[in-house]
Amino acid sequence: MKAIVTAAALAAALLLPAHAAPITVQGVDVPEQIQTQGEELVRYGAGVRSKFFMKLYVGSLFSQKPGQDAEAILNSEAISAVRLNIISSMITSDRMIETIEEGFDAASGGKVAPLRERLDTFLSLFDEPVEVDDQFTMVSIPGVGVEAYKNGELLTLIEGDDFRRTLFGIWLGDQPADKKLKKAMLGQ
Predict the structure, then answer these.
(1) What pLDDT sits at residue 22?
(2) Which segment of the chain is annotated as a signal peptide (predicted)?
(3) Using CA atoms, how far apart are residues 179 and 176, in angstroms rounded to an integer?
């Protein structure tokens, strides 16, 4: 009986996320969980977006439902969030808009037209200057769309699961902006 209880306790412990402690990535404290929509989202992982050997931002992924792969997260009914913490002055408003445009094109397979109006609304998030230490959080709400925050302030809600999946596809899709970052955000 004692062996069964011990085995059950071990099995339960293995189901808990291995990354339950807060972490620091490139000087950015990434919490073990965040709260949004009245729900606690658990951190999957975090990593650095680099381009041409320059470290641009820390990207982190949170979800209501732990243990899913990228495809499952993109199609999940669970709330999830991608958070970007800007760590380089090389990220400007114009560069952020350009990067999101490129990511949307890749994530949509070049079919941006049906999403254009909503994408333009989303890109208005970056009309104000983007500075080091700015934090952007995109909350994926299945059946609704995406809430977008800058430094904790809700700026917009973009409706539609198609927009939600495409936006999150920038980081988690088959052609992510950065394969190493995708892997890190998934905690792999």
Answers:
(1) 79
(2) 1-20
(3) 6
